[in-house]
Amino acid sequence: MTEAGRSTMRGVVIAAGAGVTLASALTWRSENWPIYAVFVLLSFLVHLPAVEVLPHVPLPVAELVTNIAFLYIGGPAIIVLRFIPPIVFASIPGQFRLRWRVRLFGHMDGIADDSTAAVAADWSAWTLGLGARSAVVWALLPAGNAVDHPGVMLLGEVVGYAVAGLLVLLPIYSFRPFLREARQGTPLYMVVEDMGLIVLLTVTPFVFLVVYGYRTHGLLGASIWSLAALGLHFVLRRLNDRRLRVEEQNRHLEDLQRELAHSERLSAIGKMSSVVSHQILQQLGVIGLYADLIGHADESGASAERLERARANARAIEQALDSVNGVLRDLLVFSKDQRLNVYEHALSTVVDEAIESCRPAAAERTVALRTDVPADLRLSLDKLKIRQALANLVRNAIEASPTTGEVAVRATAEDGWVEVAVADRGPGIAAGERDAVFAPFFTTKEQGTGLGLAIAREFVRAHGGDLRLADTPGPGATFVVRLPCGGAASPSRGSHGS
Q1: In angstroms, rounded to a whole number, what is the distance separating the alpha carbons of residues 227 and 229?
Q2: Cβ atoms of residues 130 and 79 within 8 Å
Q3: How far is CA 394 from CA 355, 381, 449, 458, 459, in A?
Q4: How do residues 6-60 score in pLDDT, each as one tens digit?
């Protein structure tokens, strides 16, 4: 909506509210002056306290109760009288005025509009809700006496909240408390749900109690029940303070859990530093050995033969350096705080990139790589982390496969989950090692760091999924990555191999 359209709509609502207020002033009855005087006095007492009845939705519960209940007791003139306390408080300098401005403009962290027009629109919406209640009473009870007709009051409440709730849908207010979760449902549904909760827990039950007090004990009974609404205010405030403390404790616990997980990773690295140091020193020894062979190469023999020996020694040094880099890279990845950068990606693309990074290792062992992944299956994930997790699994499968073997990567989607299986035809995993293979630094390979599967499982679990070793008949091992799928459609399947 354009700003001009918003201003026009806001002007219409303010004009309608002003009209209802003027009409209520014309209903003044001199014989009701005790009711009006008691209402104004009570309004000063209950006006300022506001409580957060819903997260980020503070409401002056006691004031709402008094306004609505005395509307049924004293008639529409209450609508204009309810403006007296805010006008007086707004004219007082110092702390009272500050609290009033905070109450008026500090409701929400949503639409940050504290203009006079926006605030007037807020008050007009509430005024129109009160006017709708009065219209119901005067339409069904020409005498205007609703105290002895609870059914009419109930209908008036329904109509009043419906009008106020529908007006909240208009994008013209300084705050829109009932639309804070609109992404999770339609705006109208959220309005009905939130207003229903507020009516059930706070306002309407006390409105009927105030009216009942007036019927049984006159203005004294109505006053007592209006002030009793402050008790509800303090109960709700206590519950809200407790909720805030629990939320803060939960945030603190989450921070502690992240720190603990990070510390556990670092602790695991510290405990296994001797193993890693041994691997690095071993490779450095290899590098030194071949470098010495190059430096003291036998000058006898043909030039071509000496050059070939030098090249072989250089390749051995490169392999040793690659091994050292792999150890350091795994340590760095394992020790990082695993924060996700999530976007929607085609799973087939992620799998293909993981396969491509492992293709040189597969070619060296003449292992065939085959994939069977839904072509149109898309997931919200951190592409780099899932790609690395799959690459770790494929690389392990290649190393475990016999020469001229095959590694198959297959993905399926079912019941809101996606499973990616990486299968090889190697010797498999011994029964006593099935639970230990995911432990950091556990390895059965001479040159392995034992971090590949640990990193893969951690990346997958960070996405809300899991990595497990499947029970499959026959030789080989099958590792299954299970990831949550946001309602993926039935995919068309496509496969390719190499």
Answers
A1: 5
A2: yes
A3: 7, 19, 16, 16, 15
A4: 788 888 888 999 999 999 999 988 999 999 999 999 988 887 777 776 666 667 8
Q: CA-CA distance, 248 to 231, in Å (whole number)?
A: 26
What backbone torsions phi and psi does residue 481 show, to the nearest 5 degrees?
-95, 125
Q: Per residue in 163-219, pLDDT tens? A: 877 787 777 765 554 444 444 455 555 556 656 666 666 678 888 999 999 989 999
Strand (E) or helix (H) holding 136: helix 116-140
285 in the same domain as 310: yes
Residue 375 shares a structural domain with residue 441: yes
- pTM listed for this prediction: 0.49
**Parallel, antiparallel, or unpaired: how do β-strands 378-381 and 417-423 relate?**
unpaired
The answer to whether residue 265 is domain-embedded is no
- Spell out the alpha helix ranges (H) of 177-335: 187-201, 203-271, 273-295, 303-335
Which residue from 150, 130, 154 is spatially nearest to 70, judged by alpha carbons?
130
Contacts of 474 (CB under 8 A, 6+ apart): none
Domain of residue 277: give its range. 272-336
Which carries the bigger pLDDT value, residue 313 or residue 427?
427
State both tokens at 423.
Answer: 């299968």
DSSP 171: S
Cα(39)–Cα(41) distance, integer angstroms: 5
Distance CA 437, CA 429 (A): 9
Q: Which residues pair with 50 in a beta bridge?
A: none
Look at the alpha carbons of 427, 433, 434, 437 in this order and tell me if their dihedral is positive or negative.
negative
Indicate whether 404 belongs to any domain: yes
